[in-house]
Design goal:
130 residues, alpha+beta, Double Stranded RNA Binding Domain, four-stranded mixed beta sheet, 35% helix
């Protein structure tokens, strides 16, 4: 199934290399789970002051039929901030992959919570009830 992929850049110029990497990583996601209805990737470099490095925000939104969209983000927060856009993309796509794997597991095993529910124990024939 061919899912439309929308790629947006905010605060930085469009890059063919970044766009190619996004398409490559999205194809890998589709190989794990192919029921996407839409996908949107936003790469943003927020305005910064001169002495501070430029950190990248990445947001991935993937539509799944019958479920709320999967949203994975990578925002700079101290230790996990990346000044390299490729590393920010890697982390965000890994987060999306984990969410998709979790959803896929729930869809494949919808009654898993019913299996572990406690059931009343019926007395066997020949046993006295106390």
């Amino acid at each position: 199934m061919l899912t439309p992929l929308e790629i947006s850049f905010h605060g930085l110029e469009r890059s063919d290399a970044v766009e190619a990497r996004i398409r490559e990583k999205f194809e890998r996601l589709q190989s794990h789970f192919d029921r996407f209805t839409h996908a949107r990737v936003v790469v943003e470099a927020p305005a910064r002051r001169a002495p501070r490095p430029k950190f990248f925000h990445v947001r991935i939104e993937i539509g799944i039929p019958g479920h709320k969209p999967i949203v994975a983000t990578h925002e700079p927060d101290g230790d996990h901030a990346h000044t390299d856009v490729m590393l920010a993309l890697r982390d965000c796509f890994k987060a999306a992959q984990r969410q998709i794997d979790s959803l896929s597991t729930r869809l494949d095993h919808p009654a898993k919570h019913e299996q572990v529910r406690r059931r009343p124990h019926a007395p066997q024939a020949g046993q006295d009830e106390a």
